[in-house]
Amino acid sequence: MRKIITVVIGIVLIGIGYLGFISLSNNKKSRPPSDNKVVTTVFVETVKNSNIPVQVIESGRLIAKDRMELFAEVQGVMESTQKEFKPGSTYKKGEIMLKIRSDDFFANLQSQKSNLLNLITAILPDLRLDYPDAYPKWDAYVRDFDLMQPTPELPKASSDKEKFFITGRNIFTTYYNVKNSEINYRKYNLRAPYNGILTSALVTPGTLVRPGQRLGEYIDPSIYELEVSISKSIIPAVSIGQRVKIRDSESKDSNWIGRIIRINGRVDQTTQTVQVYIQVRGTELKEGMYLEAIIEGKEKQNAYELSRSVLIDESKIYIVSDSTLQLVDIEPVHYNQKTVIVTGLKDGDTVVSKLIPGAFEGMEVQIYNSN
Questions:
Q1: Are 210 and 318 part of one and the same domain?
Q2: Is there a contact between 278 and 247 (Cβ–Cβ < 8 Å)?
Q3: Domain hosting residue 340, numbered range
Q4: Residue ranges of the chain with pLDDT lower than 70?
Q5: What is the spatial distance between Cα 281 and Cα 225, in angstroms, rounded to a whole number?
Q6: Which of 73, 290, 313, 355 is paired with 148 by a 20 to 30 Å CA distance?
Q7: C-alpha–C-alpha distance, residues 272 and 233, integer Å
């Protein structure tokens, strides 16, 4: 009896195992994948070509138009003047900026003048006898001669004999030596060539100044030049005398009107740009400021302006056609800071306005609808 029960239980267990195997086999059969395709949404804009005015916005550094580096031409110890020779000091035209001690040179100059006067005085008796017509002018020259004043020009000889006589007495040589010394004497006092301001000073009173030594830098703060580089393609639309708007990028309220005064005749080989120089005036301007120049160029006909970020290889963009992306060729005609003006698009083309990651030609997309 026990054996029969054991056999029955074994048969039941075998049946249960077989049914479990069949169930597992059915569950392993592959199920068809569900079709959950994801379509990317894109932002677009519709093309409408028009005539677009070109604005060239370039920045540059402001430089004083009249600026001068000061150098010494004579040697001596620098002396104090009424104004300190320091950056920020202003001077009127002709005012003494820097003074170098000249006592020794002045004494030597006076000695040369005295020698010239002695030579002319010595020939007066001979002139009275041999050249009576020339005597009055030379006598008047001696009487009017003032050692403390610049040496006056010598009287002109009335004849070749008079000229040879004067030359033989070494008067012309002595006279020109005196005039040369007077020119050098004036170099001991450095005077302002125009109204301006000292921007750099490299010497102080008591400094031994030597010929060729750099003393400082002097500028006229009333007029400046702004140097900017613009694309060679814009040069035909730019002309000398053209008015240009100048602005400070850090302050929207700071604006000036400048004028183009020079255009370089050479194109930079690296950047393919040309240097343009703009003259501008303003009490708020300072040398070294970085400003922006807005130059108005010619209008681009039948063109469209879009973001530079959507350009592909600088000559293609994506448009949406039949819910797919298509690459089309365009021609950039002018680059602004954030946008580009292009031609080659048709009115009504739907252009991708924001480039999407991983985009490719033929990609299925849907247009974003704000509603």
A1: no
A2: no
A3: 42-53+301-367
A4: 1-3, 5-10, 12-13, 15, 17-37, 370-371
A5: 9
A6: 73
A7: 9
Predicted confidence at residue 243, as pLDDT, reads 92
The whole-number pLDDT of residue 337 equals: 76
Contact 192, 67 (CB under 8 A): no
Is residue 192 domain-shared with residue 94, that is, in the same domain?
yes
CA distance 115 to 203: 36
Neighbours of 44 (CB within 10 A): 17
User: Kind of pairing, strands 243-248 and 224-231?
Assistant: unpaired
What does the DSSP 8-state code read for residue 176? H
Collapsing DSSP to helix, strand or coil, 365 comes out as strand
d(CA 27, CA 30): 8
Give pTM, 2 decimals: 0.68
Residue 124 · residue 143 · CB < 8 Å:
no
| Nearest Cα residue to 249 out of 81, 88, 58 | 58
Q: For the segment 135-194, what is each residue's pLDDT rounded down to a tens digit?
A: 999 999 999 999 999 999 999 988 899 999 999 999 999 999 999 999 999 999 999 999
**Cα-flanking dihedrals φ and ψ of residue 52, to 5°?**
-110, 125
Let me know whether 133 and 145 are in one domain: yes
Residue 10 lies inside a defined structural domain of this protein: no
In sequence order, what are the residues at sequence separation of 6 or more whose Cβ sits closer than 8 angstroms to the Cβ of residue 203? Answer: 78, 85, 98, 209, 213, 215, 216
